[in-house]
Design a protein that fits this description.
Length: 324
């Protein structure tokens, strides 16, 4: 209930009246009483204007599918981590199923993993979009730093009465796990609608022949952080990010996250792993499908395992389960 806490609002609605469905969209992300991500209002019904997967059929060969089927096969709530998976069949009425994983570590970060499984072959362009107002800092390939200077609202988003709410100074570092054939594309949507509350779109994009039975994977790491006046925007945090394994079948990244403790601010080191096979790297070994390890200094202070029996950090067993 602390208004400074990291907060994410996820939408899982299908089509509803005159509102288009935007299942899996991160409609809002806030920390330190500051808006860090925002979707547009209901008047922008296309997925390209929301924080979600956007699939395009570049040849126009795919017909509209039947209604979407939305479910949440995984929802695990812990003291420090919430892990959830949303699955949408016939996503936005395309011949594809989207599984979006959310690793929400409270007051530290949000990791979003998109798995797109195709049920048809077509020439496609796809990838997750992230909407913001200002971008300052980035390498043009794997990360960018963004913020909201204000939060504007108008009547139906069309300029009928303009409200500009002050937004606390707080930034969001977004890291895109690099993969062959993917690129980071930045777009200014102001000409589409001058009154958009989030007119800048950053999107990790893959373009090619999507084949029936194929799955494409996209990973995005979002880290809220304070503004440092004497350092480049986000660069001080981005340089801590180390991709140990960027592969789709085994993704592992080490990074630092700012955290406020009883004795003041500090940086915790974090390892996030998604893997289809046993993983070993970064001082950690595990057979888990998904795992998170957090260090403060040299000490492991938090860990999480999903669908696994072991987690070894250095020479210490953080977790070991046996049916014997």
């Amino acid at each position: 209930h602390d208004p400074n806490s990291l907060f994410a609002l996820i939408e899982l609605n299908g089509d509803a009246g005159h509102c288009s469905g935007r299942p899996t969209s991160v409609n809002c992300l806030m920390a330190n009483e500051s808006v860090l991500l925002s979707s547009q209002g209901y008047y922008e019904q296309d997925p390209q204007f929301h924080n979600m997967m956007w699939i395009e059929d570049l040849e126009g060969t795919q017909g509209i599918q039947s209604d979407m089927a939305i479910k949440v096969p995984v929802f695990e709530e812990g003291k420090t981590i919430t892990y959830a998976v949303a699955e949408v069949e016939r996503f936005m009425r395309w011949p594809a199923t989207v599984r979006r994983h959310y690793v929400f570590m409270k007051d530290r970060f949000l990791w979003v993993r998109d798995e797109v499984a195709f049920q048809s072959t077509f020439f496609a362009r796809l990838g997750p979009s992230w909407l913001t107002r200002q971008v300052q800092g980035g390498d043009g390939k794997t990360w960018f730093n963004s913020y909201f200077d204000i939060m504007p609202y108008t009547g139906l988003g069309q300029g009928g009465g303009m409200h500009r709410w002050r937004n606390n100074a707080y930034d969001l570092l977004t890291y895109i796990v690099p993969r062959p054939g993917n690129e980071l594309v930045m777009s200014d949507l102001t000409s589409h609608n001058y009154y958009m509350n989030a007119p800048l779109r950053a999107r990790q994009v893959w373009r090619g022949l999507a084949k029936d039975g194929q799955t494409k994977v996209f990973d995005s790491l979002l880290i809220p952080h304070p503004v440092k006046a004497k350092q480049e925007s986000g660069e001080w945090l981005a340089k801590s990010i180390q991709p140990i394994s960027p592969a789709e079948s085994q993704t592992a990244v080490i990074f630092e996250t700012p955290v406020q403790t009883a004795v003041g601010p500090t940086l915790d080191k974090v390892l996030v792993v998604f893997s289809d096979k046993p993983f070993s790297g970064g001082g950690v070994s595990t057979d888990a499908k998904m795992a998170v390890v957090v260090w403060r200094g040299k000490d492991v202070i938090n860990w999480y395992v999903h669908q696994g029996t072991t987690l070894l950090t250095g020479r210490l067993w953080a977790f070991a389960f046996s049916t014997i």
